[in-house]
Structure formats: C-alpha cells, structure tokens
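As a warm-up, study this chain.
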Amino acid sequence: MTELLAKADIEAAVRVLRSGQLGGPDHPEVRRFESALAQQSGVPHAVAVGSGTAAIHCALIALGIGPGDEVIVPAHTFIATATPVLMTGATPVVVDIDDSTYCIDPPAVHSAVSSRTRAIIAVHINGHPALVDQLPQDVPLISDACQAHGARLFGQHVGAMGVASAFSFWQDKLITAAGEGGAVLTSDDSIADRIRLIRSHAMEQIPSSPDFHHVTLGYNYRLTGVQAAVGHSQLSRLEDSVRERRARALRLAELLTEVPGIKPPIEREGAQHAFWKFVVEVEAERFEGGRAGLMMALAEFGVRTAPRYPVPLTRQPVLGGGNARLMSCPRAESLADRLLTIPLPAEAGTIDGLADLVKKAADAQRR
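Now compare it with the structure written out below.
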C-alpha cells in the first residue's frame, strides 16, 4: 500500500474528476468510503475528515474535552497525538511506554489518572495494538490507530476499540487517500453526529428555509470525493496487503534474532501486528558509534534506515512551559537513542538478503 498508487486507484480518482462533483461531506464517494471503513472494523459509524490529526481533534471535541481537563498520551509517538489536546485547551499528560511493544504503559497510565482525567489516547504504535485491555476501564479511551490499519487484538479490530478510534490516510500509510485524509470510527451515535456537524463548519439548514446557519464552532475538516475514491480503492486490498506484509515482517524478525545487538519487533500474544513500520531496538553500546554508527554501516551496504522518534514528547518544545504535565518516562527516554526503522521490502524473496546485509553491517560495526 505504501508503494505507488495502483491502476485501480488512479482510475477511481479520474472517475471522480471527470464527474465534476469533487467535494462536500455528503459526496457519494465519501459516504461509500465511510460505509466500507465502518463495515471493515465492525462499528456502525465512520466519519471521514481531512487528516488523522483532525480525527483525534474531533474525537476530543465530541467528548466535550476542554480547558481544565487532562488527557493521557504516550511519550513515544508523533506529536499529533498530543497537539489536538492542546487545540481543545486541555492539558496532555505524557506517560511512559511499555518496553516490548513501545505502546503506552498501562501501569504508568493508572498512576497518572487524576480527578481531571477525561480521556486516554492509546497509540497502536508502528502497527502493534496497544495494551488496551490493561488500561483503566472507567476513563474514555480514544484509539489512535493512525499507524495500525488492519491490526487486531484478541480478534478485535483496532477501529472498534474505545469510544472512538482515529485513522490517518497520509501518503505513506498502509492506506492513503490520495496523500492525506483521516476518519473517526465509533459505535456511539452522539459522537458520530457531533463529528459530522463540526467537520463542515457546524452548518445546519434553517427550518423551512433554503439558508444555513452555524450552530457551534466548526472546522473545515472535510475529505474530498477524489480522496475518498482512492482510499476506498485501497481499502479493498488492505487485508491481502497486511497478510503479505506480516509474512515478510515475521520472517525478517525471525532472521534478525540471530544478530547480536539487534532486538527485532515482537508480537504480543493475541495481537495482530500490521507492521506499518519495522522497528528494531539497537543495543547501542555494542556498536562503534552507537545507533548512528550502525546506521552508517547499513547505508554502506545499501540499507537506508532512520531513527524512530529520537525526541520523545517529554522533550518537545510545544509541550514545555507548563503546556503539559510531563511524567517520568525513563523507558521512552532510553529508547529514543536505540530504536531504528528498517524498510520492509515489497517482495518476500528479498527478505533473506536484507537480513544478511543487516548481519554484515552489524558484524562490521560491532565492538
């Protein structure tokens, strides 16, 4: 899914462009995409919006979160997990992560809950489902599934977890809606209705009038017909894509267990990891130059890698100055210097060769 658009995706976009009907929240392609998303996750409602960030923001608004409230988020994630909390006027509470899945740490969440806690945002990081079954059950859960298309936990789709789940269709995700887009999935009728209202300027038709008025603060968070058509086309291939991706990732993880100093990603019992990113933990002290030295060696063997979230939320300037409540996050701080993303080849036949290159680079750089 992360490669170039397929012929069917391009044809879907062209079909909408030729129709001359391009936008609007009630566009037939938007409604069709929403219906398919909801059906795939097993929930009644999917509301398409302009981005994953917008999806989280809308979910928070629908829960009535605002100034004086707190929302718990993990330290190891993209900034857009936390900034929508700031956008509502509430306070992000940044907690530590589990050191095996890199998802939000349930004991840290329990310790951070206060009288002001109104929600928890659990990120299914890299495609691995968060440990939602161990989180407080009396606090509303927003499932940040922006990285986890096709992931499941104990058979439940991540889109069905919590009071609402947020998806992103940015250009490098397992599903893209022509480069950008998002959606909120929920089983709550009132949440869905609220998000449908605010995503398009909170515009309602005045009774017995052709005119509209704006009943509350709304936003331009709409998805276009072209984006929805491309997203729907890609969604039809998601299950096959994730199945093939998992096979490649699990094979690579198996081979890398034999490389000293590199810990491949795990899959918790009961979890179906989507492997949007294949992230390994590097024992930096075992390599000349640490993680950076290993990255240079890998580059010499033609393997382009990247550090994974090297600046945790605890050190992000936007969350400083009292904008957030920052808990102690030693695991997130330590892993910031140890996690490395290895690109997953599109072809199964190249996995063994990639593993061999990683082993050679590690051997060349090992102290």
